[in-house]
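User: Predict the structure for this protein chain, please.
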Amino acid sequence: MSAPQHIEQSAAKQIQADHGAQEYLVFTLGQEEYGIDIQIVQELRSYEAVTNIANSPDYIKGVINLRGNIILIIDLRLRLGLPVRFYDQFTVVIVVNLGGQQLGIIVDGVSDVIAPQSDEIQSAPQLVSINEACRFKGVATIDDRMILLTDISRLVATNDICLLEEVAA
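Assistant: Here is the predicted structure, written as structure tokens:
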């Protein structure tokens, strides 16, 4: 076995060991399905009007007041460089907790919860750039579905969290 194959297999085994018994909330962006660790999900909400933040990146839609907490709202489509889509009755805001900070992530829709077995999870494809690969934990293949398992903490830049802290202060 060559060194690159050995490294790939080791990475896949580590992903399987880390995430094999985990549950993921499945959401959609366009035709693609993504999974987010259900342990960081606090609630699902329909999209509502936000208060804009001047001079923020286009993927930061603004903030909302959720039971006294200021929540930064990020459009995940725009964060990933996907085309703009108008919000409709299926648009969902997934409220997550990242290290004590609440954050709202706009997605096209939410479908179900999965608990892939370790043999159903593979490492992220090698064709994905190093920068993009760190955003994904792997790919779950369940029946005829392929679900990209995301690492939301890496999808959301540190400066986005800093912006939230500034707004909340």
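Residues 3-19 form the longest helix (17 residues).
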